[in-house]
Amino acid sequence: MKKAARDSCPPHSATLVTRETHAEEQEKHPEFLRGVIRLFIIQQTMQKPACGYAIRKALQQHGSDLSPGTLYPLLHTWEDEGLLKSYTEHDKKRVRVYYQATDTGKSYYTQARSAVTRLMGKDLAPALHVDQTGEDAQIETVAVGFFA
Fold first, then answer.
1. Helices 68-80 & 30-44, crossing angle to 10 degrees?
2. Which has fewest Cβ within 10 Å: 44, 82, 119, 128?
3. pTM of the model
4. Does residue 92 fall inside a structural domain?
5. In which domain, by residue range, is 118 found?
6. CA distance 147 to 117
């Protein structure tokens, strides 16, 4: 019986989530996508703070179209968890809130990256390539397919 169940599973393959299938994937795997989005946002804010609008645009460029009504509560939750910190800047027209990864967030990202690399090995190693320079790790590339 176990063999039959195993044979009915599709072969493992890295499938890119396109904009058309993103909503379907979000419905099927909400916790997984939330975790990937969390890693993406922490990675995006490790070197340079970003406002919610810039984070949303970066997510859209990688195929994840979160509404502001979904994104901002996530940012607030991760700030409450200590993964992100925020500060405000005022310009002539508006107040912008910028988010930046905390040391806790950076540690979370590093541990998650190590766990994924350990579990997935060569499949994701290029996607999570890191150049260690001094004490800080600078992210060189993030594969669109992994974070789409």
1. 70
2. 119
3. 0.64
4. yes
5. 18-147
6. 14
